[in-house]
Amino acid sequence: MSEESIYESLLRKGVSRRDFLKFCSTSAMILGLSSSTVPKIAEALEKKERPSVVWLHFSECTGDSESVLRASKPSIAQVILDIVSLEYHETIMAPSGHAAEKSLKDIITKKKGKYIAVYEGAVPTADGGVYCFIGGHKAIDICKEVGSGAMANIAVGNCACFGGIPAANPNPTKCVGIKDILGGTVVNLAGCPMNAENFTAVVVHFVTFGTLPALDKHGRPLFAYGKCIHNNCERRPHFDQGQFVRQWGDMGHRLGWCLYEMGCKGPMAYQNCPTIRWNEGTSWPVQAGHPCIACASPNNWDDAYPFYKRMEGVPGVGWQANADKVGLGIAAATAAAVAAHGIIRAATRGKGPSDKEEGH
Amino acid sequence: MATTHREYIWEIPVRITHWINAISIVVLSVTGFYIGSPFWDSPNSDSVLPMALMRFIHFVAAYAFTASVLFRIYWMFVGNKYARWNQFIPLSTERIVNFIQCALFYGFMRKEIPHSPGHTAIAGVSYSIIFLIFLYEIASGFALLYVANGGGAIYNIGGGWLLRIMDLGTIRMLHHVFMWVIWIFVIIHVYISWHNDIIERNGLMSSIFSGYKFFGKHH
Ligand code: HEM
Ligand code: HEM
Ligand code: SF4
């Protein structure tokens, strides 16, 4: 079924030419490309066949699939689902049991080197990887088998990218992200869950140019994770004006002031939420009144914790949220020590002449 | 005690950079503390933008501080013998002996501070550490500016490169923690300066203003 081009598939589903071109422009916009690339994108989507996608689930909550499927306007949901030929997706495919098993085997052998593998969820590695079995196979083995034959590997959601919640301290099952299993290039569409629009944009880029978009040091596409949230936040003027929410539901909170003092991690987080937003531009966490928890950053469940306090923890020391108290404490202790030293010196001085060192 | 001999120790650049550093650190700490935990709200700010103002002052002081620190490091290679880099890092036997003697003196195990017309070796080491911390504050500050301004060549040279080896959260947290480390240094530093001034009667405290220290006649 993937012989159909993306455009044909969209036409069949009743998407108009106009909507199709809108979609091409939106994709170019999300990717940060100039409008002159829109015809190129349109041409590629018209001519090239839809890429086959194998979508795997490991240790996760299926939130990323939800993010893709629960898009509110049907046309966009169609676009996202139709832009790829979803050959295997445990949650939404028709076959089950052995039939499902077989379809996965078929795809990865018949389309070897021609499918995109999408991963949702972390891979447990403790005790040989026994903590996640699917159809009698360990997640770690499925991951390696599918990953080795894929033309591109895309990890969606923070669990697949960096381990996410399953890998949070103390990480009993030693969960890791996909890249730690596969090595090589893995596109990390981080976020909890990832933003479906960014997924679409990556696929459009891949179909149009035949390459993956430029990635940052965490493997995240720069077009989506290149800018600091704090710099594009609509509450930013309140930050500059020193207007901060101090308590949930206080006047500032009702007026939409800055969430910095409520622990907002926007100043350390990178994603395009403030511009692309979620659910077709309806809203995003900060707009809805909740501080950013840096859900697209590696280890955010540990590093961005505490979520509702300003200060990041001091790693390994457990000073969490207390750098100022500890700093002040040590400074006071130092002052006391210095005073004690002075007293001892005063008490012991004057005994014997202050004979200067001879020569030097 | 006879103080018959006056010697010019701290050249003008050493003194000027010392006081630019000291003043800008006070300014950077107050404004930085506000940036870290804004203690003052402005519910009705038509004209005053406290956070924007604090950040602006922080950045102005930051440039003065950066210039001063870099100039002092340059002066470590061209200044007089008391300003030289080898006063900071004890490599010669004389400086190592001086270091041990100082340690014994501060620990009440030796009566006299070893004669050190410039910095004592312990002071030198503490300044080396504090200069490294200054350099970290500068690099991390520029890294934060790099993020805040979404790039920029100067910010990149100044510290944007840190982002490639450290996470932004850690960079920021350490930028804050080192503020406290600097203040702990300052407490000890001012105490020791005063203490040695009293013990040695060498005019140490005023020397950082005037440049001169006083030594006994056998010198
Ligand atoms: C933020 C505050 C301060 C910082 C960061 C600071 C830092 C330093 C540094 C790095 C040096 C080495 C100077 C060089 O060779 O360039 C130094 C020397 C000195 N400072 Fe400070 N200082 C501060 C405040 C003060 C204050 C308040 C005093 C007291 C009046 C003082 C007295 C001295 C003296 C007497 C010396 C020369 C001492 C020696 O090494 O033998 N400083 N200071
Ligand atoms: C001794 C020197 C300095 C001290 C004690 C200091 C202190 C601080 C503190 C406590 C913060 C708040 C951190 C937080 O909790 O978020 C801060 C923020 C910051 N500092 Fe510094 N700082 C120093 C030097 C510098 C320098 C040299 C630069 C730049 C070249 C700089 C740029 C910044 C920036 C950009 C921020 C973040 C502002 C924001 O995100 O709005 N700082 N500083
Ligand atoms: S709400 Fe968060 S991201 Fe927005 S301006 Fe305040 S601190 Fe920055």
Which characteristics define this entry?
heterodimer, A: 360 residues, alpha/beta, Rossmann fold, Cytochrome-c3 Hydrogenase, Chain A, domain 2, 17 helices, disordered C terminus, B: 219 residues, mainly alpha, Fumarate Reductase Cytochrome B subunit, two-stranded antiparallel sheet, 65% helix, elongated, binds protoporphyrin IX containing FE, binds iron/sulfur cluster
Largest sheet descriptor of chain A: 5 strands, parallel
Number of strand segments of chain B: 2
How far is the first residue's CA from the last residue's CA of chain B?
13 Å
User: How many structural domains of chain A?
Assistant: 2
Structural class of chain A: alpha/beta
**What do the pLDDT scores of chain A average to?**
86
Question: How many distinct folded domains of chain B?
Answer: 1
Residue ranges of chain B: pLDDT <50 for 5 or more in a row? none
Please report the distance between the alpha carbons of the first and last residues of chain A. 92 Å
Order of helices and strands of chain A: HHHEHHEHEEEEHEHEHEHHHHHHHH
Summing up helix and strand content along with how strands pair, one would put the structural category of chain B as mainly alpha
- The CATH class of the largest domain in chain A turns out to be Alpha Beta
Bound molecules: protoporphyrin IX containing FE, iron/sulfur cluster
What is the number of helical segments of chain B per DSSP (H or I, 4+ residues)?
7
What's the mean pLDDT score of chain B? 89
CATH architecture of the largest domain in chain A: 3-Layer(aba) Sandwich
**H/E series of chain B:** EHHHHHHHE
Percent strand of chain A = 5-15%
Rg over alpha carbons of chain B: 20 Å
